[in-house]
Automatic annotation (TrEMBL):
PANTHER family, per the entry: FIBRINOGEN/TENASCIN/ANGIOPOEITIN (PTHR19143)
Annotated ranges, domain Fibrinogen C-terminal: 59-201, 251-499
GO CC terms of this entry: extracellular space
Annotated CDD domains: FReD
Keyword terms: Disulfide bond
Pfam families membership: Fibrinogen_C
Name assigned to this protein: Fibrinogen C-terminal domain-containing protein
Species this chain originates from: Macrostomum lignano
Length: 499
């Protein structure tokens, strides 16, 4: 085992525990940051290494050198002005040589909840600066939008754009700033951005939570990253265990338990054993009692890990899945107006995934453009009963096709009928953009915005009704799922999630 001495900022870490152990770690060099308007990133000589306090660009020559032997994994960390944090990741990233104007190659997108792919569209492009135009635009994107990037015509992202302070960052000049369009839009400059490359991988065996009679073996993966946006040392670990009695792989996290229910507790050394029970989805070890508490998903669901609840718990736990359900729509009260126009529905709005929320039509298309996703709809009635509907295939078309819906493969909890397949093939309708099959406009007739036909079996973006108005109110108005609730029942809560 090799150890490295350093004086480390702990801003990207959280305490797990204190113990006598030799936990492997590694450190990596960070190279670039956008967190304040200190330096100009529109310089022509970005092939050299410019260092401005902690805000530096590593140089195109360095980027090529780091990826010349083969593509690296790229991670992009983003911080918005409401202090929310997001990420995008690409499994393959490389930069070509100077002779090819540092041509970009990037693919294999994944991202946190709501984040769309704003880099793959730049793949294949050469780097452009204010004095070296290699984009496909008639003019020069670098001068038109004050930056330097692998521009196309011109950009979905421009992370080297001019940094905007809080007073200018939101609602400013079109597409100027530190831009990641999906889902933030062209009038939003990010507060912070960081790009990181994965260098290499090392392994160490470690016991996790095994039963007394049959200790399981696990594997601890710790992956060092090269940061392309911040000069500090950072270790980015991922923990994975593999129980001896099963091929199931378990993943370390700090999880909110709101979507789980306890199954049982059993004696354990310091790890986990599911004893072949496929319903067990989460385990938590209690060191003081030496018990391993086992949990399954509520409502009989097979996989209930939500991205919005991931890493929000106080205690470290082990989950059966590393992936999670992305919240794309959520209704819990009437505090956010959902009776909005076409332009507003194209972008994200609301209180964030934990509250009243809409991810935006552009993001829905981006999330499903590479192929259909699984959709889950969670419903809560006014008697506090909970229900769900699930679709094995869900996708949303591009703006040019008015975000046409494709959905199929229904299943549901007891008594819940299919109220979405009948909307498949429909374009999205708002109060100012009528694409339904009705003579009038379903959005204005029923106060909502949806993939209406003539008009709806469901309208989950309908006007929220409080308890006094939700039952027996106006025909088909409200947060509607007609089967089995009917046209005079507006649901108490609704959440749409993609896997």
């Amino acid at each position: 085992q090799t150890r490295y001495s350093s004086r480390e900022s702990l801003s990207d870490y959280e305490a797990v525990r204190s113990r006598s152990a030799r936990n492997e770690f590694d450190c990596a060099l960070s190279l670039l940051d956008r967190s304040a308007p200190f330096a100009s990133f529109s310089n022509s000589d970005l092939n050299d290494k410019h260092r401005y306090d902690i805000r530096i660009f590593p140089g195109l020559n360095s980027l090529h050198a780091l990826t010349a032997s083969g593509p690296r994994k790229l991670r992009i960390l983003m911080k918005a002005w409401n202090d929310s944090e997001h990420w995008a990741e690409y499994s393959s990233f490389s930069v070509g040589p100077e002779s090819d104007n540092y041509r970009l190659s990037v693919s294999g997108f994944s991202g946190s909840a709501g984040i769309g792919d704003c880099f793959t569209s730049h793949s294949g492009m050469q780097f452009t600066t204010k004095d070296a135009d290699h984009d496909t635009r008639t003019g020069n994107c670098a001068t038109d939008y004050i930056g330097a990037w692998w521009f196309t015509n011109c950009h979905c992202s421009n992370l080297n754009g001019e940094y905007k302070n809080s007073s200018e960052a939101i609602g400013g000049v079109y597409a100027e700033g530190v831009i990641w369009r999906l889902p933030f839009g062209n009038h939003y400059s990010l507060m912070e951005i960081e790009m990181l490359l994965l260098l290499r991988e090392r392994r160490q065996l470690q016991l996790l939570c095994a039963p007394d009679r049959d200790a399981a073996r696990g594997r601890l993966f710790e992956r060092p990253m090269v940061a392309l946006l911040l000069l500090l040392l950072a270790a980015v670990p991922r923990h994975v265990t593999e129980a001896a009695s099963s091929v199931q792989t378990w993943h370390s996290s700090r999880e909110s338990l709101s979507d789980y229910e306890a199954v049982r507790s059993r004696s354990a050394r310091n790890g986990f054993d599911s004893s072949g029970d496929s319903t067990v989805q989460l385990a938590a070890f209690n060191a003081s009692s030496s018990l391993c508490a086992l949990f399954r998903c509520r409502l009989g669901l097979s996989h209930c890990r939500k991205c919005r609840n991931a890493n929000k718990g106080a205690q470290r736990v082990w989950t059966a899945h590393s992936d999670c359900w992305t919240t794309v729509q959520h209704r819990v009260s009437g505090s956010v107006d959902f009776y909005r126009n076409w332009t507003q529905y194209q972008s994200e709005f609301g209180e964030g995934p934990d509250g009243n929320y809409w991810i935006g039509l552009n993001s829905l298309h981006a999330l499903t453009a590479s192929g259909p996703r699984k959709l889950r709809i969670l419903m809560k009635a006014w008697n506090d009963s909970e229900h769900w509907a699930e679709y094995s295939s869900f996708s949303v078309g591009p703006e040019s096709d008015n975000y046409r819906l494709s959905v199929s493969g229904f299943s549901g909890s007891a008594g819940i009928g299919d109220c979405f397949t009948s909307h498949s093939g429909m374009q999205f309708t708002t109060k100012d953009a009528d694409h339904d099959t009705r003579t009038g406009n379903c959005a204005t007739d029923y106060i909502g915005a949806w993939w209406f036909n003539n008009c709806h079996c469901s309208n989950l973006n309908g006007e929220y009704k409080n308890s006094s108005e939700a039952i027996g109110g106006v025909y088909a108005e409200g947060v509607i799922w007609r089967l089995p609730f009917g046209n005079y029942y507006s649901l108490m809560e609704i959440e749409m999630l993609l896997l």
